[in-house]
Amino acid sequence: MKLPIYMDNHATTPVDPRVFEVMKPYFTEHFGNAASRNHSFGWEAEEAVEKARKQIAELIGAAAKEIVFTSGATESNNLALKGAAEMYAEKGNHIITVATEHKAILDTCKHLEKHGIRVTYLPVKQDGLVDLDMLRDAITDKTILISVMYANNEIGVIQPVTEIGKIAHERGVLFHSDAVQAVGKVPVNVLKDNIDIMSLTAHKLYGPKGVGALYVRRKSPRVQLAAQMDGGGHERGMRSGTLNVPGIAGFGEACEIARREMPEESARLRALRDKLRAKLESELDQVYINGTMESRLPHNLNISFAYVEGESLLMGINDVAVSSGSACTSATLEPSYVLKALGAGDDLAHSSIRFGLGRFNTEEEVDYVGDKVVDVVKKLRELSPLYEMAKEGIDLTKVAWTAH
Amino acid sequence: MAYSNKVLDHYNHPRNVGSLDKNDPNVGTGMVGAPECGDVMKLQVRVNPETGIIEEAKFKTFGCGSAIASSSLATEWLHGKSVDEALAIKNTDIVNELSLPPVKIHCSVLAEDAIKAAIADYKKKAGTKSDSVAAQ
Questions:
Q1: What phi, psi does A321 have (nearest 5°)?
Q2: Domain boundaries along the sequence of chain A
Q3: DSSP per position, chain B
Protein backbone atom coordinates (compact mmCIF):
# COMPACT_ATOMS: atom_id res chain seq x y z
CA MET A 1 0.00 0.00 0.00
CA LYS A 2 1.35 3.38 -1.01
CA LEU A 3 1.00 6.53 1.12
CA PRO A 4 -0.50 9.09 1.00
CA ILE A 5 -3.91 7.64 0.17
CA TYR A 6 -6.18 9.70 -2.07
CA MET A 7 -9.81 9.56 -0.92
CA ASP A 8 -11.07 12.93 -2.15
CA ASN A 9 -12.58 11.83 -5.44
CA HIS A 10 -15.38 14.42 -5.32
CA ALA A 11 -12.76 17.12 -5.73
CA THR A 12 -11.13 15.48 -8.69
CA THR A 13 -10.07 12.06 -9.94
CA PRO A 14 -6.81 10.92 -11.46
CA VAL A 15 -6.78 10.38 -15.22
CA ASP A 16 -7.27 6.69 -15.93
CA PRO A 17 -4.12 5.40 -17.72
CA ARG A 18 -6.37 4.03 -20.49
CA VAL A 19 -7.76 7.53 -20.98
CA PHE A 20 -4.29 9.03 -21.07
CA GLU A 21 -3.23 6.60 -23.81
CA VAL A 22 -6.10 7.75 -25.99
CA MET A 23 -5.22 11.42 -25.44
CA LYS A 24 -1.50 11.25 -26.19
CA PRO A 25 -1.45 11.28 -30.01
CA TYR A 26 -3.68 14.37 -30.11
CA PHE A 27 -1.02 16.51 -28.44
CA THR A 28 1.73 15.82 -30.92
CA GLU A 29 0.98 13.72 -33.99
CA HIS A 30 -2.68 14.59 -34.58
CA PHE A 31 -2.54 18.16 -33.37
CA GLY A 32 -4.90 19.64 -35.92
CA ASN A 33 -7.65 22.17 -35.29
CA ALA A 34 -11.01 20.43 -35.42
CA ALA A 35 -12.39 23.47 -37.24
CA SER A 36 -9.89 23.17 -40.13
CA ARG A 37 -12.09 21.83 -42.90
CA ASN A 38 -9.61 21.58 -45.76
CA HIS A 39 -6.80 19.24 -44.73
CA SER A 40 -6.25 15.90 -43.06
CA PHE A 41 -4.92 17.40 -39.83
CA GLY A 42 -8.23 19.07 -39.25
CA TRP A 43 -10.21 16.00 -40.31
CA GLU A 44 -8.36 13.75 -37.84
CA ALA A 45 -9.04 16.16 -35.02
CA GLU A 46 -12.67 16.50 -36.01
CA GLU A 47 -13.04 12.74 -36.15
CA ALA A 48 -11.70 12.41 -32.60
CA VAL A 49 -14.07 15.11 -31.37
CA GLU A 50 -17.10 13.51 -33.03
CA LYS A 51 -16.21 10.09 -31.64
CA ALA A 52 -16.01 11.58 -28.14
CA ARG A 53 -19.28 13.41 -28.64
CA LYS A 54 -20.96 10.06 -29.36
CA GLN A 55 -19.33 8.36 -26.38
CA ILE A 56 -20.45 11.10 -24.01
CA ALA A 57 -23.96 11.23 -25.48
CA GLU A 58 -24.30 7.48 -25.13
CA LEU A 59 -23.45 7.56 -21.43
CA ILE A 60 -26.30 9.99 -20.72
CA GLY A 61 -28.90 8.83 -23.25
CA ALA A 62 -28.53 11.89 -25.48
CA ALA A 63 -27.84 12.44 -29.18
CA ALA A 64 -24.29 13.41 -30.16
CA LYS A 65 -25.48 16.73 -31.61
CA GLU A 66 -26.83 17.72 -28.20
CA ILE A 67 -23.36 17.84 -26.62
CA VAL A 68 -21.66 21.25 -26.48
CA PHE A 69 -18.03 21.20 -25.36
CA THR A 70 -16.82 23.71 -22.77
CA SER A 71 -13.81 24.22 -20.53
CA GLY A 72 -15.47 22.54 -17.56
CA ALA A 73 -18.54 22.47 -15.39
CA THR A 74 -18.21 26.03 -14.12
CA GLU A 75 -18.42 27.29 -17.67
CA SER A 76 -21.23 24.84 -18.46
CA ASN A 77 -23.24 26.11 -15.49
CA ASN A 78 -22.61 29.73 -16.44
CA LEU A 79 -23.65 29.08 -20.03
CA ALA A 80 -26.78 27.20 -18.98
CA LEU A 81 -28.06 29.83 -16.57
CA LYS A 82 -26.92 33.03 -18.25
CA GLY A 83 -27.65 31.65 -21.71
CA ALA A 84 -31.19 30.64 -20.75
CA ALA A 85 -31.89 33.88 -18.87
CA GLU A 86 -30.85 35.91 -21.88
CA MET A 87 -32.56 33.72 -24.48
CA TYR A 88 -35.89 33.48 -22.64
CA ALA A 89 -35.98 37.03 -21.25
CA GLU A 90 -39.27 37.70 -23.05
CA LYS A 91 -40.89 34.67 -21.46
CA GLY A 92 -39.95 35.52 -17.91
CA ASN A 93 -37.27 36.48 -15.42
CA HIS A 94 -37.51 33.93 -12.63
CA ILE A 95 -35.10 31.07 -11.85
CA ILE A 96 -35.50 28.47 -9.10
CA THR A 97 -32.49 26.77 -7.58
CA VAL A 98 -31.44 25.20 -4.28
CA ALA A 99 -29.38 26.43 -1.31
CA THR A 100 -27.00 23.45 -1.49
CA GLU A 101 -25.95 23.94 -5.11
CA HIS A 102 -22.31 24.35 -6.08
CA LYS A 103 -20.92 27.90 -6.05
CA ALA A 104 -20.79 27.84 -9.85
CA ILE A 105 -24.59 27.87 -9.75
CA LEU A 106 -25.14 30.08 -6.70
CA ASP A 107 -22.66 32.76 -7.75
CA THR A 108 -24.02 32.76 -11.30
CA CYS A 109 -27.50 33.30 -9.83
CA LYS A 110 -26.16 36.15 -7.68
CA HIS A 111 -24.77 37.71 -10.84
CA LEU A 112 -28.08 37.34 -12.66
CA GLU A 113 -29.91 38.94 -9.72
CA LYS A 114 -27.93 42.10 -10.40
CA HIS A 115 -29.31 42.05 -13.93
CA GLY A 116 -33.01 41.87 -13.21
CA ILE A 117 -33.46 38.14 -12.73
CA ARG A 118 -35.40 37.01 -9.66
CA VAL A 119 -33.98 33.87 -8.04
CA THR A 120 -35.64 31.56 -5.53
CA TYR A 121 -33.21 29.53 -3.42
CA LEU A 122 -35.14 26.56 -2.09
CA PRO A 123 -34.05 25.17 1.27
CA VAL A 124 -33.47 21.44 1.62
CA LYS A 125 -34.96 19.02 4.10
CA GLN A 126 -32.80 17.60 6.86
CA ASP A 127 -31.92 14.67 4.59
CA GLY A 128 -30.48 17.09 2.02
CA LEU A 129 -33.26 16.61 -0.54
CA VAL A 130 -35.50 19.19 -2.14
CA ASP A 131 -39.11 19.37 -0.94
CA LEU A 132 -41.13 18.84 -4.12
CA ASP A 133 -44.18 20.65 -2.77
CA MET A 134 -42.08 23.71 -2.07
CA LEU A 135 -40.71 23.49 -5.58
CA ARG A 136 -44.23 23.32 -7.06
CA ASP A 137 -45.28 26.33 -4.99
CA ALA A 138 -42.25 28.35 -6.06
CA ILE A 139 -43.07 28.15 -9.77
CA THR A 140 -44.75 31.26 -11.21
CA ASP A 141 -45.76 32.18 -14.75
CA LYS A 142 -42.49 34.12 -14.93
CA THR A 143 -40.35 31.06 -14.15
CA ILE A 144 -38.09 30.13 -17.05
CA LEU A 145 -35.67 27.68 -15.48
CA ILE A 146 -35.29 25.27 -12.57
CA SER A 147 -31.71 24.32 -11.78
CA VAL A 148 -31.15 21.46 -9.34
CA MET A 149 -27.96 19.42 -9.08
CA TYR A 150 -28.15 15.70 -9.73
CA ALA A 151 -25.94 14.70 -6.80
CA ASN A 152 -24.36 16.90 -4.17
CA ASN A 153 -20.59 17.29 -4.13
CA GLU A 154 -20.30 17.31 -0.33
CA ILE A 155 -22.93 14.94 0.99
CA GLY A 156 -23.51 12.89 -2.17
CA VAL A 157 -27.30 12.92 -1.91
CA ILE A 158 -29.11 12.30 -5.19
CA GLN A 159 -32.00 14.68 -5.78
CA PRO A 160 -35.30 13.37 -7.16
CA VAL A 161 -34.42 14.70 -10.62
CA THR A 162 -37.00 12.69 -12.55
CA GLU A 163 -39.83 14.17 -10.46
CA ILE A 164 -38.31 17.66 -10.59
CA GLY A 165 -38.09 17.44 -14.38
CA LYS A 166 -41.68 16.25 -14.56
CA ILE A 167 -42.89 19.15 -12.43
CA ALA A 168 -40.90 21.59 -14.57
CA HIS A 169 -42.31 20.24 -17.80
CA GLU A 170 -45.90 20.28 -16.54
CA ARG A 171 -45.47 24.02 -16.07
CA GLY A 172 -43.56 24.61 -19.30
CA VAL A 173 -40.34 25.40 -17.43
CA LEU A 174 -36.88 24.22 -18.51
CA PHE A 175 -34.93 21.94 -16.20
CA HIS A 176 -31.15 22.23 -15.86
CA SER A 177 -29.10 19.87 -13.74
CA ASP A 178 -25.46 20.12 -12.69
CA ALA A 179 -24.63 16.43 -12.92
CA VAL A 180 -20.85 16.46 -12.54
CA GLN A 181 -20.83 14.22 -9.47
CA ALA A 182 -23.37 11.74 -10.82
CA VAL A 183 -22.40 11.11 -14.43
CA GLY A 184 -20.34 7.97 -14.76
CA LYS A 185 -21.13 6.97 -11.16
CA VAL A 186 -24.86 6.25 -11.28
CA PRO A 187 -27.11 5.73 -14.32
CA VAL A 188 -28.05 9.13 -15.75
CA ASN A 189 -30.46 9.37 -18.67
CA VAL A 190 -31.57 12.80 -19.80
CA LEU A 191 -34.75 11.45 -21.39
CA LYS A 192 -35.90 9.35 -18.43
CA ASP A 193 -34.77 12.05 -16.00
CA ASN A 194 -36.64 14.82 -17.88
CA ILE A 195 -33.50 16.97 -18.10
CA ASP A 196 -33.29 19.72 -20.72
CA ILE A 197 -29.83 21.10 -20.00
CA MET A 198 -27.11 19.28 -18.09
CA SER A 199 -23.57 20.17 -17.01
CA LEU A 200 -20.77 17.62 -17.15
CA THR A 201 -17.04 17.58 -16.59
CA ALA A 202 -14.31 15.10 -17.49
CA HIS A 203 -12.08 15.29 -14.42
CA LYS A 204 -14.68 13.87 -12.04
CA LEU A 205 -14.84 10.62 -14.01
CA TYR A 206 -11.17 9.84 -14.54
CA GLY A 207 -10.76 12.17 -17.50
CA PRO A 208 -8.56 15.27 -17.76
CA LYS A 209 -9.16 18.68 -16.17
CA GLY A 210 -10.09 21.65 -18.33
CA VAL A 211 -12.77 20.00 -20.44
CA GLY A 212 -16.48 19.81 -19.82
CA ALA A 213 -19.73 19.70 -21.72
CA LEU A 214 -23.24 20.99 -21.67
CA TYR A 215 -26.08 18.78 -22.85
CA VAL A 216 -28.60 20.98 -24.64
CA ARG A 217 -31.82 19.24 -25.68
CA ARG A 218 -32.72 19.57 -29.37
CA LYS A 219 -36.35 18.48 -29.37
CA SER A 220 -39.43 18.50 -27.14
CA PRO A 221 -38.49 21.05 -26.12
CA ARG A 222 -35.81 22.48 -28.37
CA VAL A 223 -33.60 24.48 -26.02
CA GLN A 224 -31.76 27.55 -27.20
CA LEU A 225 -29.07 29.34 -25.25
CA ALA A 226 -27.51 32.71 -25.92
CA ALA A 227 -23.74 32.29 -26.31
CA GLN A 228 -21.74 33.91 -23.52
CA MET A 229 -18.54 34.22 -25.50
CA ASP A 230 -18.21 35.76 -28.95
CA GLY A 231 -16.03 34.22 -31.61
CA GLY A 232 -15.97 31.68 -34.42
CA GLY A 233 -19.40 30.25 -33.75
CA HIS A 234 -18.21 26.75 -32.82
CA GLU A 235 -20.49 24.23 -31.11
CA ARG A 236 -23.74 25.15 -32.88
CA GLY A 237 -23.02 28.80 -32.12
CA MET A 238 -23.34 28.26 -28.39
CA ARG A 239 -19.67 28.16 -27.45
CA SER A 240 -16.94 29.70 -29.56
CA GLY A 241 -13.31 28.73 -29.13
CA THR A 242 -10.94 26.16 -30.59
CA LEU A 243 -11.76 22.76 -29.16
CA ASN A 244 -9.42 21.07 -26.69
CA VAL A 245 -9.02 17.98 -28.87
CA PRO A 246 -6.83 15.82 -26.59
CA GLY A 247 -9.00 16.69 -23.62
CA ILE A 248 -12.17 15.90 -25.52
CA ALA A 249 -10.78 12.58 -26.78
CA GLY A 250 -9.96 11.70 -23.18
CA PHE A 251 -13.39 12.81 -21.96
CA GLY A 252 -15.00 10.49 -24.54
CA GLU A 253 -12.88 7.51 -23.54
CA ALA A 254 -13.54 8.20 -19.85
CA CYS A 255 -17.29 8.11 -20.53
CA GLU A 256 -16.98 4.90 -22.51
CA ILE A 257 -15.08 3.21 -19.67
CA ALA A 258 -17.56 4.52 -17.10
CA ARG A 259 -20.51 3.18 -19.07
CA ARG A 260 -18.92 -0.25 -19.44
CA GLU A 261 -17.67 -0.59 -15.87
CA MET A 262 -20.28 1.30 -13.86
CA PRO A 263 -22.31 -1.68 -12.58
CA GLU A 264 -19.26 -3.48 -11.25
CA GLU A 265 -17.46 -0.37 -10.03
CA SER A 266 -20.40 1.13 -8.18
CA ALA A 267 -21.11 -2.19 -6.42
CA ARG A 268 -17.47 -2.44 -5.34
CA LEU A 269 -17.30 1.14 -4.08
CA ARG A 270 -20.62 0.84 -2.29
CA ALA A 271 -19.34 -2.22 -0.42
CA LEU A 272 -16.13 -0.40 0.56
CA ARG A 273 -18.04 2.72 1.61
CA ASP A 274 -20.43 0.64 3.72
CA LYS A 275 -17.50 -1.17 5.31
CA LEU A 276 -15.89 2.14 6.27
CA ARG A 277 -19.16 3.44 7.66
CA ALA A 278 -19.74 0.26 9.69
CA LYS A 279 -16.25 0.47 11.14
CA LEU A 280 -16.61 4.11 12.21
CA GLU A 281 -20.10 3.62 13.63
CA SER A 282 -19.22 0.49 15.55
CA GLU A 283 -16.02 1.78 17.13
CA LEU A 284 -17.01 5.38 17.87
CA ASP A 285 -20.01 6.89 19.63
CA GLN A 286 -21.67 10.13 18.56
CA VAL A 287 -21.00 9.97 14.84
CA TYR A 288 -23.60 11.41 12.52
CA ILE A 289 -24.07 10.77 8.81
CA ASN A 290 -24.82 13.99 6.94
CA GLY A 291 -27.55 13.57 4.33
CA THR A 292 -29.75 10.61 3.52
CA MET A 293 -28.22 7.18 2.89
CA GLU A 294 -31.35 6.16 0.94
CA SER A 295 -30.62 8.27 -2.11
CA ARG A 296 -26.89 8.75 -2.32
CA LEU A 297 -23.83 8.25 -4.52
CA PRO A 298 -22.31 4.84 -3.79
CA HIS A 299 -18.82 6.23 -3.18
CA ASN A 300 -19.69 9.09 -0.81
CA LEU A 301 -19.59 9.18 2.96
CA ASN A 302 -19.96 12.47 4.83
CA ILE A 303 -19.81 12.03 8.53
CA SER A 304 -19.52 14.27 11.59
CA PHE A 305 -17.54 13.19 14.64
CA ALA A 306 -19.12 15.21 17.44
CA TYR A 307 -16.75 17.12 19.76
CA VAL A 308 -13.82 16.86 17.34
CA GLU A 309 -12.87 19.72 15.04
CA GLY A 310 -12.42 18.73 11.39
CA GLU A 311 -9.10 20.35 10.64
CA SER A 312 -7.43 18.83 13.69
CA LEU A 313 -8.76 15.46 12.55
CA LEU A 314 -7.32 15.98 9.07
CA MET A 315 -4.00 16.83 10.72
CA GLY A 316 -4.02 13.52 12.53
CA ILE A 317 -4.67 11.57 9.34
CA ASN A 318 -2.19 13.55 7.28
CA ASP A 319 -1.32 10.60 5.05
CA VAL A 320 -4.94 10.41 3.87
CA ALA A 321 -6.37 13.01 1.49
CA VAL A 322 -9.99 13.76 2.42
CA SER A 323 -11.79 17.03 3.03
CA SER A 324 -13.71 18.66 5.84
CA GLY A 325 -16.63 21.07 6.13
CA SER A 326 -14.78 22.80 8.94
CA ALA A 327 -14.32 26.55 8.64
CA CYS A 328 -10.62 26.17 9.31
CA THR A 329 -10.18 24.28 6.06
CA SER A 330 -12.06 26.77 3.90
CA ALA A 331 -10.76 29.93 2.33
CA THR A 332 -13.67 31.93 3.77
CA LEU A 333 -13.33 30.70 7.39
CA GLU A 334 -17.02 29.77 7.25
CA PRO A 335 -18.15 26.19 7.84
CA SER A 336 -19.78 24.34 4.96
CA TYR A 337 -22.96 26.07 3.78
CA VAL A 338 -24.22 22.71 2.54
CA LEU A 339 -24.08 21.18 6.01
CA LYS A 340 -25.53 24.34 7.54
CA ALA A 341 -28.45 24.04 5.10
CA LEU A 342 -29.28 20.64 6.60
CA GLY A 343 -29.96 22.46 9.86
CA ALA A 344 -27.68 20.22 11.92
CA GLY A 345 -25.92 23.14 13.60
CA ASP A 346 -22.57 24.72 12.87
CA ASP A 347 -20.75 22.57 15.40
CA LEU A 348 -21.45 19.41 13.40
CA ALA A 349 -20.35 21.16 10.22
CA HIS A 350 -17.01 21.93 11.90
CA SER A 351 -16.70 18.24 12.80
CA SER A 352 -17.41 16.77 9.38
CA ILE A 353 -15.22 14.72 7.07
CA ARG A 354 -16.04 13.87 3.47
CA PHE A 355 -14.73 10.57 2.15
CA GLY A 356 -14.88 10.27 -1.62
CA LEU A 357 -13.92 6.77 -2.73
CA GLY A 358 -12.76 6.15 -6.24
CA ARG A 359 -11.76 3.64 -8.90
CA PHE A 360 -8.24 3.23 -7.57
CA ASN A 361 -8.98 2.80 -3.86
CA THR A 362 -8.44 -0.68 -2.44
CA GLU A 363 -9.96 -2.52 0.49
CA GLU A 364 -6.59 -2.38 2.25
CA GLU A 365 -6.64 1.42 1.99
CA VAL A 366 -10.18 1.62 3.34
CA ASP A 367 -9.19 -0.54 6.33
CA TYR A 368 -6.15 1.63 6.98
CA VAL A 369 -8.19 4.84 6.80
CA GLY A 370 -10.89 3.42 9.08
CA ASP A 371 -8.36 2.39 11.75
CA LYS A 372 -6.56 5.69 11.57
CA VAL A 373 -9.71 7.80 11.84
CA VAL A 374 -10.91 5.81 14.86
CA ASP A 375 -7.54 6.30 16.62
CA VAL A 376 -7.34 10.01 15.93
CA VAL A 377 -10.96 10.72 16.89
CA LYS A 378 -10.42 8.91 20.20
CA LYS A 379 -7.24 10.85 20.85
CA LEU A 380 -8.83 14.20 20.02
CA ARG A 381 -11.85 13.46 22.18
CA GLU A 382 -9.50 12.94 25.13
CA LEU A 383 -8.37 16.48 24.36
CA SER A 384 -11.86 17.88 23.87
CA PRO A 385 -13.51 19.87 26.67
CA LEU A 386 -16.83 19.38 24.86
CA TYR A 387 -16.59 15.60 24.98
CA GLU A 388 -15.79 15.81 28.69
CA MET A 389 -18.78 18.09 29.32
CA ALA A 390 -21.10 15.87 27.29
CA LYS A 391 -19.93 12.85 29.29
CA GLU A 392 -20.75 14.77 32.48
CA GLY A 393 -24.25 15.20 31.12
CA ILE A 394 -24.01 18.91 30.40
CA ASP A 395 -26.30 20.08 27.60
CA LEU A 396 -23.89 21.97 25.35
CA THR A 397 -26.69 23.89 23.69
CA LYS A 398 -27.53 25.51 27.05
CA VAL A 399 -24.02 26.74 27.84
CA ALA A 400 -23.42 30.50 27.56
CA TRP A 401 -20.49 30.39 25.13
CA THR A 402 -18.29 33.37 24.44
CA ALA A 403 -18.68 33.50 20.66
CA HIS A 404 -15.79 35.28 19.01
CA MET B 1 -1.64 24.52 4.82
CA ALA B 2 1.82 23.66 6.09
CA TYR B 3 2.19 23.58 9.86
CA SER B 4 5.35 24.62 11.66
CA ASN B 5 7.33 21.88 13.39
CA LYS B 6 6.44 23.35 16.79
CA VAL B 7 2.71 23.21 16.03
CA LEU B 8 3.11 19.61 14.87
CA ASP B 9 5.07 18.75 18.00
CA HIS B 10 2.39 20.16 20.31
CA TYR B 11 -0.35 18.50 18.26
CA ASN B 12 1.38 15.11 18.36
CA HIS B 13 2.56 15.44 21.97
CA PRO B 14 0.21 17.85 23.70
CA ARG B 15 1.52 18.95 27.13
CA ASN B 16 -0.58 19.01 30.27
CA VAL B 17 -3.80 17.62 28.88
CA GLY B 18 -6.47 17.12 31.50
CA SER B 19 -8.69 18.73 34.07
CA LEU B 20 -8.29 20.07 37.58
CA ASP B 21 -11.07 20.15 40.16
CA LYS B 22 -12.93 23.33 39.28
CA ASN B 23 -14.38 23.49 42.80
CA ASP B 24 -10.94 23.64 44.40
CA PRO B 25 -10.57 27.23 45.75
CA ASN B 26 -6.99 27.38 44.46
CA VAL B 27 -7.97 26.40 40.92
CA GLY B 28 -8.93 28.99 38.33
CA THR B 29 -10.86 27.82 35.25
CA GLY B 30 -11.13 29.67 31.96
CA MET B 31 -13.40 28.46 29.20
CA VAL B 32 -13.43 30.53 26.00
CA GLY B 33 -14.74 30.14 22.45
CA ALA B 34 -17.88 28.45 21.15
CA PRO B 35 -18.60 25.13 19.41
CA GLU B 36 -20.31 26.84 16.46
CA CYS B 37 -17.16 28.91 15.88
CA GLY B 38 -15.11 25.73 15.73
CA ASP B 39 -12.97 26.25 18.82
CA VAL B 40 -13.39 25.98 22.57
CA MET B 41 -10.48 26.12 25.02
CA LYS B 42 -10.61 25.14 28.65
CA LEU B 43 -7.53 26.21 30.59
CA GLN B 44 -7.04 25.67 34.32
CA VAL B 45 -4.36 26.81 36.76
CA ARG B 46 -3.66 25.70 40.32
CA VAL B 47 -2.13 28.55 42.31
CA ASN B 48 -0.22 28.18 45.56
CA PRO B 49 -2.07 30.65 47.80
CA GLU B 50 1.04 31.27 49.91
CA THR B 51 3.39 32.18 47.07
CA GLY B 52 0.97 33.21 44.29
CA ILE B 53 2.87 30.89 41.94
CA ILE B 54 1.10 28.70 39.37
CA GLU B 55 2.09 25.17 40.26
CA GLU B 56 -0.01 23.31 37.74
CA ALA B 57 -1.76 24.15 34.48
CA LYS B 58 -4.00 21.89 32.40
CA PHE B 59 -5.94 22.30 29.19
CA LYS B 60 -8.48 20.70 26.93
CA THR B 61 -9.18 22.15 23.51
CA PHE B 62 -11.72 21.54 20.78
CA GLY B 63 -10.27 23.21 17.72
CA CYS B 64 -7.77 23.07 14.91
CA GLY B 65 -4.17 21.99 15.32
CA SER B 66 -3.02 25.57 15.91
CA ALA B 67 -5.61 26.04 18.67
CA ILE B 68 -4.45 22.83 20.35
CA ALA B 69 -0.81 23.90 20.05
CA SER B 70 -1.52 27.43 21.36
CA SER B 71 -3.22 26.14 24.50
CA SER B 72 -0.66 23.38 25.03
CA LEU B 73 2.14 25.95 24.82
CA ALA B 74 0.26 28.27 27.18
CA THR B 75 0.11 25.60 29.90
CA GLU B 76 3.84 25.02 29.49
CA TRP B 77 4.56 28.70 29.93
CA LEU B 78 2.23 29.07 32.92
CA HIS B 79 4.08 26.55 35.05
CA GLY B 80 6.11 28.34 37.71
CA LYS B 81 4.90 31.81 36.79
CA SER B 82 3.31 34.20 39.24
CA VAL B 83 -0.25 35.28 38.55
CA ASP B 84 0.95 38.70 37.39
CA GLU B 85 3.59 37.20 35.11
CA ALA B 86 0.90 34.95 33.63
CA LEU B 87 -1.22 37.98 32.79
CA ALA B 88 1.71 39.46 30.88
CA ILE B 89 1.70 36.63 28.31
CA LYS B 90 0.62 38.13 25.00
CA ASN B 91 -0.94 36.38 22.03
CA THR B 92 1.91 37.69 19.86
CA ASP B 93 4.38 35.71 22.00
CA ILE B 94 2.44 32.56 21.07
CA VAL B 95 2.28 33.57 17.39
CA ASN B 96 6.06 34.04 17.31
CA GLU B 97 6.88 30.87 19.21
CA LEU B 98 4.65 28.67 17.02
CA SER B 99 5.17 30.61 13.75
CA LEU B 100 1.41 30.83 13.28
CA PRO B 101 0.24 32.14 9.89
CA PRO B 102 -2.14 35.16 9.79
CA VAL B 103 -5.29 33.00 9.47
CA LYS B 104 -4.40 31.28 12.75
CA ILE B 105 -3.77 34.38 14.86
CA HIS B 106 -7.24 34.04 16.37
CA CYS B 107 -6.05 30.76 17.97
CA SER B 108 -3.38 32.64 19.89
CA VAL B 109 -5.89 35.34 20.88
CA LEU B 110 -8.14 32.63 22.23
CA ALA B 111 -5.26 31.18 24.26
CA GLU B 112 -4.50 34.60 25.75
CA ASP B 113 -8.20 35.00 26.57
CA ALA B 114 -8.19 31.57 28.22
CA ILE B 115 -5.23 32.50 30.43
CA LYS B 116 -6.92 35.78 31.46
CA ALA B 117 -10.21 33.99 32.14
CA ALA B 118 -8.53 31.34 34.27
CA ILE B 119 -6.64 33.93 36.33
CA ALA B 120 -9.76 36.06 36.72
CA ASP B 121 -11.66 33.02 37.97
CA TYR B 122 -8.90 32.27 40.48
CA LYS B 123 -8.80 35.89 41.66
CA LYS B 124 -12.56 35.95 42.04
CA LYS B 125 -12.43 32.83 44.20
CA ALA B 126 -9.47 34.15 46.22
CA GLY B 127 -11.24 37.48 46.61
CA THR B 128 -14.43 35.83 47.85
CA LYS B 129 -12.34 33.82 50.24
CA SER B 130 -10.52 36.81 51.74
CA ASP B 131 -13.79 38.80 51.82
CA SER B 132 -15.39 36.04 53.81
CA VAL B 133 -12.34 35.98 56.09
CA ALA B 134 -12.62 39.74 56.54
CA ALA B 135 -16.31 39.48 57.31
CA GLN B 136 -15.69 37.06 60.15
A1: -95, 105
A2: 17-258, 262-394
A3: -PPPHHHHHHHHS-SSBS---TTSTTEEEEEEEEGGGTEEEEEEEEEETTTTEEEEEEEEEES-HHHHHHHHHHHHHHTT-BHHHHHT--HHHHHHHHT--GGGHHHHHHHHHHHHHHHHHHHHHHHHHHHHHHH-
pLDDT at site A401: 85
pLDDT of residue B132: 45
Report chain A (404 residues): mean pLDDT per 10 consecutive residues.
97 98 98 96 97 98 98 98 98 98 97 98 98 98 98 98 98 98 98 98 98 97 96 92 97 98 98 98 97 98 96 95 81 83 86 97 98 98 95 89 74
For the four alpha carbons of B80, B82, B88 and B90, in that order, the dihedral sign comes to positive
Q: What is the ipTM of this complex?
A: 0.90
Give every residue of chain B whose pLDDT is below 70, as ranges. Answer: 1, 128-136
Q: Is the pTM of this model over 0.95?
A: no
b/e sequence A157-190, b meaning 16+ C-beta within 10 Å = bbbbbeebbebbbeeebbbbbbbbbbbbbbbbeb
Contact in structure between A312 and A354 (CB atoms under 8 Å): no
Q: What is the pLDDT of residue A333?
A: 67
Q: Which residue in A328, A350, A388 is closest to B60 by CB distance?
A: A388
For residue B100, being part of any structural domain is answered with: yes
CB of A386 less than 8 A from some CB of B: yes
Return the CATH number at B15: 3.90.1010.10
CB contact under 8 A, B33 and A401: yes
Q: Domain for residue B110, yes or no?
A: yes
Chain B hits for A335, CB-CB cut-off 8 Å, are 38
The correct answer on CATH 3.30.450.20 for the domain covering A262-394 is no
- 64-123 of A, contacting B, C-beta below 8 A: none
* Domain formed by A17-258, architecture: 3-Layer(aba) Sandwich (3.40)
Task: Find the domain containing B100 and state its range.
Answer: 5-123
CB contact under 8 A, B62 and A311: no
Taking the CA of residue B1 and the nearest CA in chain A, the distance in Å comes to 9
Q: What is the model's pLDDT at position A243?
A: 97
